[in-house]
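Each record in this resource describes a single protein on a pair of labelled lines. An example record follows, reproduced without changes.
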Amino acid sequence: MEQAKDFLEESRALNDLLAGQPDSAFDMVTQFKAWTINDVLRHLHFWNWMAELQIADEARLEAELSAVGAEGMRPRERAHVDGAGGRQLLDMWWRQAERTAGTFASADPKARLKWAGPSMSARSSITARLMETWAHGQEVYDCLGADRKDADRIRNIAVLGINTFGWTYSVRQLTPPELVPFVRLEAPSGEIWTFGEDTSGNRIEGCATEFCQVVTQTRNVKDTALTVTGPVAEDWMSKAQCFAGGRNDPPPPGTRFRQIRA
């Protein structure tokens, strides 16, 4: 699956960003729920491993999901790495990312895999890992003051954002509007991506990176240059949520940004 390669390349970009950092940098606090960079890596590492178990060991997956339910997510994430942090944790996370990518590369994209909620296809599972790596990677780039250079593999995230239009509403126990707004995005390569039909008067136009930031809730739409036209488009962008779990609201305006480091 191409998505497995894209997941690995997004992981590689984050690994390259962190590879030259001292251990002390991993204790830096990000703008996401006061998580440290170590917290981010523990989270990504654990769930990358869980994704591998979807294919490699379903019984172990079910046992671990039960443990998460009983003990909580973050305690299980910390226990899985046995206190590792810094460059040791970075190495553990990277090696697991390689294993997970390799497992999914040869999987049937349509295979149904168990998960915490409803089952999902193998393609959807590895796309979710790509999205999580990219989204949680954003707080690391922001924390370090790094200028992120995206690649066209973020199209996977843009598509996920479009496909979860209805989910944004149903997770809030709201009825989704009948028409999905037309979306026109400029990819990192300069290519133009369009989604839907431009018939309803509701449009979202602009940078693909900023659209992905909004649907993954790493930026408030007011902190982007996206052009949002029409009441449905405005409402969607004010609450867009492409990830599973309970309702989550976007960060308040001005709270997520690239920090300036001396």
About this structure: The chain has two domains: 2-149, 155-237. The beta strands are 112-113, 120-121, 182-186, 192-195, 203-207, 227-229. Residues 6 and 114 are 22 Å apart (CA to CA).
